[in-house]
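Newbie here. two chains, one complex. Structure please?
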Amino acid sequence: MVDLLQQQAAAQAAAASPAIHTVELAKRYGRTVALAGLSMTVPRGEVFGFLGPNGAGKTTAVKLLLGLVPPTSGEGWLLGHPVGSVEGRRRVGYLPELFRYQPWLSGREVLALHCELMGLPRAGWKEEIDLSLHTSGLGARADDKVREYSKGMQQRLGLGAALLGSPELVLLDEPTSALDPIGRHDVREIIHIVRERGAAVFLNSHLLTEVEMVCDRVAMVDHGRVIATGTLDELLGGHACRFRVAGLTPQQRHSLSHFGEMQDDGEWMRLLRLEPESVPDVVAEVVGMGGRVYAVEPRVRTLEDRFLELLRAEPGE
Amino acid sequence: MRPILTFARLTLVEASRRRLLLALVLLTVVVCGFTGWGFSRITAPALSGGQQLSTVEVRTVASQLLILVAFLFSGVLALSSALTASPAISGDIESHLTTAMLARPVLRAQYVLGRWAGLAVLVIAYAAGSSALELAVVDITVGYLPPHPAQLVLFIAAEGLVLMSLALCLSTRLSGMTGGLIAIAAWFIAWLTGVLAAVGQVISNVALENLGLAVRLLMPVDALWRGAIYAMEPAAIVAAASQNRDLGANPFTVLTPVPPAMLVWSVVWVVAIVGLSLWSVQRRDL
């Protein structure tokens, strides 16, 4: 009876826990640091982007979460269960970066294999597989052998496998690396569907625009360390606008910095964190000082801008 | 338990889809066909100086030829076991199949045990199938059956299981090519050392005898092969050979059964090597 109560309490605690929680999770290979102390929390129902250049430690982080690589130090939990435990992986879908499936099985058989490995009741396999094939757009080729699939189709198959069994957390490692623009659009749709179901998505990518379009929060990682984390607004610091201006002295140009953080290369002035409604005021002030405005390009500061800034600010860059 | 069966079944499906089973079956049928023709010639008068061999002579010749044919099958089984098991895990890891499969709620131990169980079924099926077919061919052509056919199958299968377990263990850390090469070399070395040990026994060379024992403990395939030979030898031949001490040096003649301790050691050896495979996979990055 006590055991049953303890099990119920543990199940309730797990249900209330975040999708991912890590504390100083680290992996070292000798003197090489693959991931240095990853601490983060991803709530359920959130699309979380994990950004970084090649070799930054993104895939290592995912493999640590799934127990495919044991950590050197630190700890973490998936859906309330310790990373590496069987229970932690029970409600998780995963698309590996290097997606390969048995070439001698058909797409449908691969999905059946994953249903079996997940321990799903056999009576529900057909429905699960059909739904997964429909969502991933593989329906017409489901009975062909995987060896006959293009790389993009194999990635779609991997996506389909990751969606089996209504997972509460989906880990996608570079999910569009082999897909054409239509496929990339489909992936964004799939991510929205998963979020609407209430599941969390951990999107590992170096495609910044992709992350920008779908993620609620982002962590940027480089050299095995998280160098920034937050919502897109927090990271990008709001809107920006650039002006091509002539006829002003450097002092006059600098005087415009009260509108926002200024970056000036002598021809283009860029004002960061400038609200769109202040743009006419900037133009009026330039003209008022005797300057001439040749171009105004309101633009949102992109994740790429911020990402490059952070990378350049990194020691050793 | 269920994931072990899943991985075992996957191994069998893979062998079937990759046409390994078909190749082995065809090869076995062809070899049995050729050997059947060969055995049928034993009773042909034209090949025995125009005289019909007596029943005793036919049985004697057939028993010795059967040992040679069994050695061929044992060799094919050994090579097949090594070449099939050596890329079983390393191939899955190198092609990243394990990252998708072992991210599921299964234990690495279940994966290794499933792979081993699937390969074990293949080894036992081949040992039983090829032995049964060859024995049937010999029985039909010359009317001879060895005294202990079931033991013959068990010893040949056990030899294959030992080599398969070694190759699978190597597969947890080495590439398929390297692991396969080592396993096959180990099989040849063990067999050759067994022959040297038999010669050592005849010439009372303790060093050679001890070398043979040491290699049998490290790699018990030769001991099991000698068990298979003993299972095929008619009692009359063993009795006759026992009178001639020098015949003990013949690599295809065995005068004593395999000691029970060696059989126990073979089982312990397989359990230990499978345990080592589990430990090895548990500790590696995928």
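Moderator note: Chain B touches chain A at residues 2-3, 6, 10, 13-14, 17-18, 95-107, 283, 285-286 (CB under 8 Å). Chain B has a mean pLDDT of 91. Thread marked as resolved.
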